[in-house]
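Appendix C reproduces, verbatim, an entry submitted by the partner laboratory led by Prof. M.T., so that reviewers can inspect both the input and the predicted structure.
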Amino acid sequence: MSARPSGAADPQARLAELLARLAAADAAYYRDDAPIMDDAAYDALRREAESLRAAHPEGAAALDQVGAAPSGAFGKQRHRVPMLSLDNVFEPADFAEFCASIRRFLGLGAAPLAFVAEPKIDGLSISLTYENRRFTRGATRGDGTEGEDVTENLRTLRELPATLPDDAPDLIEIRGEVYMTKSDFIALNQGQSRQFANPRNAAAGSLRQLDPAITA
C-alpha cells in the first residue's frame, strides 16, 4: 500500500503555503517598508505559485491582487480607476507570448511590433488628483482599489506642483513614482538607528510618516 503524500507534496497545500508567504512579503514591502526577501526570491515564489494555479484556480485569486491593504494609520482613498501593477517576464518564451498577446488584442496578425524601453524607477506608486488645476489629494496604490491618503505629506515635496497651468483639465489624475536618489539615500541612512534596505523603501518610509513635518 502506498503512503499518503505529505503536505509538502500536495500541490494545493503548497499553493496555500506560497500564497501565505507572498502575502507576508507584500505586507512587509508595501505597507511596512521593510522587505523580508529580495526581488529574485519573491519572483521565484510567485512563478511557482503561477505554475500551480492552473490546477487550483479557486484558491489562487490572491495572485491577481497588487500591493497590500492600506495601513490603518492613514485615512483611505478609493481609486476612481483601479491602480494596477506591471507584470514581468524572465524567459524569451514569456516575452514571445507577451508579443503574441499584443498582436491578438490589436488584431495585428504577424505584423512586426516596435517597442520603446526605458529604465524603471523603483519608487512608491502614487496617484495625484488635481481639481480646477489645484492639487487636492494624493494616495498610495494600497491594494489597487484603496490606497492610503498621504495628501498632506505630498504637499511637503518641493518637486510636486501645487497648481497646474491654465490649459490643464478641470479634473485630472496623474500617476507616478515618489523616489529617492542614491546620494540622498546614503545621506539619510548615515547616523540612522533604523537603516533602510534600499532607496525605494527609504522613499516610501519617509513619505508614509504620520507627521508631515518629518516627511519634509
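Helices lie at 11-31, 39-53, 92-106, 151-154, 182-189, 199-207, 212-215. Additional entries are available on request from the coordinating office.
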